[in-house]
Here is the input.
Amino acid sequence: MAIDTGIALDCAALVEVGGLQNIFVCDIERIAAVTTSGTTSYSSLSASGTWAMFQLKPNTATWSTTSSKENGLTRFETTVQWYIPNVDATAVGVLENMRNGCLVAVAEFRSGTMRVCGMSEEYQGFGNGSTDWKYNNTYATCSIEDTSGNDFVDGNGVTVTLTATSFETPRVYTGAVTYGA
Here is the structure.
């Protein structure tokens, strides 16, 4: 028997660090250009204006993707969820803009990998050429839960949840990130 496919684990993979470090969010309408790298990653996501960046409190953010197959079509649902402590008026304004948007998020894992939620190259839209990815309804939607906690040691903050459906595994982002102030 010859084995020619599979996934080998190196030492770094055996002692990996889990969790998310940062999340970057932008409205899909502000994304001006996308550069794909093969069929599994994006090497550039250019947007007009800036992305909203959320630094994450340790152990408060999750990424999950589930897949299901029905009538020969595989569908992926990605959920990105994080907690923001002590929300002030500025944060409320940012969150309100997100609640009403068609969002794309890039999650930075503690391992250094970045994944994209809310964009897909599969089943592209209306033949608009280079911006087909804008019209296939794979953007993320946002829900926000504001909580005060029950106990003195509980946090007061907001849990943000982004959910997106796509027809391919969420792609890896390999491009550069420029951190602002």
